[in-house]
Amino acid sequence: MLTGLLGTTLGIAMMSGAQAQTRTEPPAPSQAPAAVGTNGAAAQAAATPGTAGATTQAVAPTTAAQGGAQTTAQTTAQTTAQTTAQTTAQTTAKGTSQAAAALPAMTIHGGRSAYQAEFVHSDQFTQPILDMAQSVSVIPKKVLDEQQAQSLQDILRNVPGITFTSGEGNLGWGDMFTIRGFSSEQSFTVDGIRDAGLASRMDTFDTESVEVFKGTGTIESGVAAPGGSVNLVTKEAHLGDAYHLQGSLGSASYRRVTADLNKQLGDNTALRLNLMRHTNDVDGRAVTHYDRWGVAGSLAMGLGTPTTVTIDYLHQHDDNVPDGGIPIQRGTGGAPMPGVARNAWYGDPNLYTDRAETNRVTVKVAHDVNDNVHLSNITRWEQTDRVTVLSPARFNSTAGTSLGYLGSGPLITSGSGALSYSGFAPAPIAGGQAVLRGNNFGTAKRYDILANETNLNLAFDTGHVHHDVVAGAEFYHERYGDLTSVVDGPAFNPVMSLANPYGTSMGSVPTLEGGAGDYAAVNDGGVYLRDTVTLTPKWIVDGAIRYDRFSVRQVNGAAGAHTVQRSNDGAWSGRAGLTYKPVPYGSLYASYSQATQPSAVGGTTNNVIYGDTTSQSVKPATAKTWEVGTKWDLFERRLSLTGALFRTELSDSWDYGDSTTTVVRELPPKRVDGIELGLSGNLTEKWTAFAGFAGMRGRITKGANAGARPGNVPNATFNLWTSYQLTPKLALSYGVQYVGTRRYTDNAYVGGQNNNSSTVNGPNGKHPVYVADNEKAPAFWLHSLAARYEVDKHLTLSLNVQNLFNKFYYSAIGASLDGYQIYGVPGAGRTVILSADLKF
């Protein structure tokens, strides 16, 4: 498979490269991060974020003494149908001195596509994405704007191999998703700083782009990110004045207003302000409602000088009525239970809520010591308060048994003669009534983080070998605890009609969530070192290592009567990669990465979320990823093609429990093998595309569930967003997403509770009988259309139609821990949004 993939890609690359590629150094991107000796803020000082257009760039050679890290001040006049003239100070690529020295100065016509990214926004990575021995997907602002993507779920639909899930209580972490089949809700950073906040990332008003790093995380994540990690790049102030206002109206009471205002203050200072107000219901769903507002400010000083200081602030307030989904009947291929409508909403709208308030302050300092030495530091404080009352749609029959089963026993003989539980036919429900398992699902929590990260970038030569070195240290203090506030939670499990659940009251029990004074604090100190060694213009070796030391303190009970438990863990992580460049615009690579994650980090914080009074500790989880791949920048580097084969293994793994007795559940080892393909950029001058495909095969490798396909690992995912400039004023876009079938849990057997024991209990908790669980959520295709019309240079009108054919599908799936009950959150139906953009 790899031979065929590489052969096909090489053939295409050679044909296009023979006509279009005549250089080893890539043209400078419209928004490149800092090279060594180049202040990132200074390099982007004059750049107004937008669409890259046709560019003429003079590229001067560097010398070996300069270490391939010199920068060239460039002034680029760019004019496209969608953007105004921009003046851009850009960094040249972080190429090698040996390759650059052999080239004469030349002029390149044509710039990178706005659908492409050349670098990631982190001082921890010194090479262009083309030369990195790792799969990286960058969703640029251009794609986000065209799609009207507003939430993290909207954004990550553009990345193959990512799916969303729903916890048993839908509580705890805000966004629950998997990358390459592995849980990744804690594998999240904002501008490179860890963000494991409790709130969902519901809006993109302060987001410039999104970066997804595939494979086991090492120096970029700090703790094990088995399948990868996500980094949000926020908007920052830049030189030049730019004002952007947008207003949107749509179906399901969709209303949205945003403002992005940037003002230059003096020669080297700028201020940027982003504002957002948003409200909407959900097409095809009853009761569910989202209401939020936010403000974000950025003050940058010293732009265009060796030293810059940037101060950012974010405040966002969310007040939502969440969606617990609908119950799914086993044995139907994912159909809702009898009598359940597509828009059915189960719960009490007077009680169910998801309120969050986030404040975040970030200070960034960057200094160019000289052309080969760059120092940067980022400090962040963030606090999130979240109050949530919600239960997923899990039902018992009125007799008290799990709905979907005829009872908890005795064993019966199936048609094949095998012992089984009759769980594949609807249970008798008197008058269509059922009992919602919803009592006591309420939390009121506060999350704080204080983090500091320092990076030292060095570029130097040892003989004919060039080194790009990153040495860094990171510290963060996280605190998870109760809010001192009263939350009204459900008082009992109500009996309600599956067909007409509205008007049901669940009573209320005021719960003083903060009175006990429970909290958990996590301190992490990490140090790391990376060396990217350019042996020759064709061979690059990359090695990175990181060590983290965790200290965890858990406090239960009020002052004077509380108990204190402590835990300490250490974790090593590292990556090694080899890149071969047969031509300057292409690369072949192989890499290996490994990391561990102590259970104390996740388990202790989860104890506080669910109110546990005991401590559990299991062996640290270990993740390993092997990957081989290829990357090509074709057609004058305006189109990027990528392909990779990977294997990720996770052993000694654990998951979060939802009760006081099972806070950390040991899970059996599992493995995911897969292939990924990607495309981004310009196919022609007028035609752009952003696409990806992932095929995955997962298996539980040991224990009672050995051989089972892990939960939430689709066999295939595919995404495409493509736009065509039909006339100078009119552009049309089409999008499609495919998600294949996926299991609801890791269980091979109903009642297994995802465990690794030699016997698996049946529904009554007594019979060690294996009851096969073969349920899968149905695959689905989603289609979208968009049109944009430029009225004049200031005003653009756009129309977006999402889920064009009103497809019924589950955007997130879940199951009770015992696996008896499965449920899904239906995605939005056909949604129409009309927007007006004003730029001046």
Automatic annotation (TrEMBL):
GO CC field: cell outer membrane
What membrane topology is given?
A: Multi-pass membrane protein
Annotated GO biological processes are: siderophore transport
Q: Name one GO molecular function term.
A: signaling receptor activity
Record region (Disordered): 18-42
The UniProt keyword set, sorted, is: Cell outer membrane, Ion transport, Iron, Iron transport, Membrane, Receptor, Signal, TonB box, Transmembrane, Transmembrane beta strand, Transport
- Could you tell me which residue ranges the TonB-dependent receptor plug domain spans? 130-228
Renumbered to this chain, the Low complexity biased-composition regions fall at 31-42
Leader sequence segment: 1-20
Q: Which NCBIfam families match?
A: TonB-siderophor (TIGR01783)
The protein's name: TonB-dependent siderophore receptor
Q: Which organism is it from?
A: Burkholderia gladioli
Taxonomic lineage of this organism? Bacteria, Pseudomonadati, Pseudomonadota, Betaproteobacteria, Burkholderiales
